[in-house]
Request: fold
Amino acid sequence: MTVFLLILAGGSIAALGALALHAAQRTSVAEARFPPLGAMQTVDGVALHYVDHVPPGWVAGDPVLVFVHGASANLRDPVAAFRPALSARYRLIFVDRPGHGYSQRGEGAAHSPARQAALIAGLVTHLEVGKAVAVGHSWGGAVVAQLALQAPDTFAGLVFIAPATHPWPGGVNWYYDVAALPVVGAVFSHTIAPAVASLVASNGVDSVFAPEPAPDNYQQSIGLPLLFRPHSFLANARDVSRLKPEVEAAAPRYPQIDQPAAVITGDADTIVYPDIHSAGLVRDLPNAWRVDLAGAGHMPHHTRTDAVVREIEAVVAKTYPDHMRAANAVETKNAPARL
Reply:
C-alpha cells in the first residue's frame, strides 16, 4: 500500500510538473504573439502598462478619456472597441489593471478596486492630465467608482458599462474561489487551470456576449491567450473572488459621487445583474442616468459601440462644457454656407 501511494504521489507530481512546463511554454508563445502595445510607468512601486493616444491638434485642457477594462481581459479590449471610433477627437488612455496584460501585480491589497484606482490615478497624474472622463467595463466599473471617490477633481466625468459595483446574492464560479486559495490556488493556476481554461475559452466568450454573437476576431483582437498565463489567471481569480466584500464596503460611500455619470447596460446581461448594479448606481449617484440597450448582453461596447459612444460623448459634453462650446463654434464657422 505504501509503495502504491508513493507511486501515485510521484505520478501526480510528474503530471503537475508537465502541466507547469506546458503553461510556461504557452506563456512564451502568448507573449510573442501579443506583445505590449504601449509604455511602462512605475507608480508606487508597481509598473503599469498603458497606451496613451494623443490625436493631432490636441492641447492641454482638451477632453481625455481613461479606460479601465473588466475581468478576464486587458487593455486590448477597450482599445479594440473604442480607438477606431474616438481616436480622432480625444486623447485616449488605456491601462492594464495590476496583474493583467503587462502591468505588474504589486503586493498587499492588489485585488482591491481602491488600490487599483490609486495606481491608475497616480499614472494619470504622472501624465499631467488635469481632468478626465473615466470609462469602466464590468469589474472595471468598481475601479471607476473608486477613481470618482479618490480623485473627484481629476475624474470629473464617469461612464459605467455593464458595471459590477454592488453586492449581489450568491458567489462566483468555483474555479475563481479555488484559484484564489493560498498555496493550492497558486498550484492550480500554474498547472491545471491554464490548460483547461484555454480549451473552454470559446464557450466562455460566447456566454459573455450572449445573446448577441461575439465578433469573429474577438479572441485575437484582445490577446485572450494572455489571460491563461499563470500569473494573470491567478490575479484575475483573486480579483473576481474577492470583489463582493470590496463593493459591500464601498457602496455606502457612492452617494458622495456627484460627477455626471452614464450607466449603460444590456437588458439581457446575465453576467452581472443590471437591476442590482446599474440600478444601484442610478439610485446612489445623484447625477447618474441609465441607458438600457434592448437585447444586448454583457459586452455592449463591442456589440453596440455607437450607442455607448453617444453616452460617452454626453458625459464629455457635461465634463468639458467650455471646450464643447468652442468646438461647436468652430464647426459652425467652418460649415458651408446655405445658398
Summary: Strands lie at 39-43, 46-53, 64-68, 91-95, 132-137, 155-161, 261-266, 288-293. The longest strand covers residues 46-53.
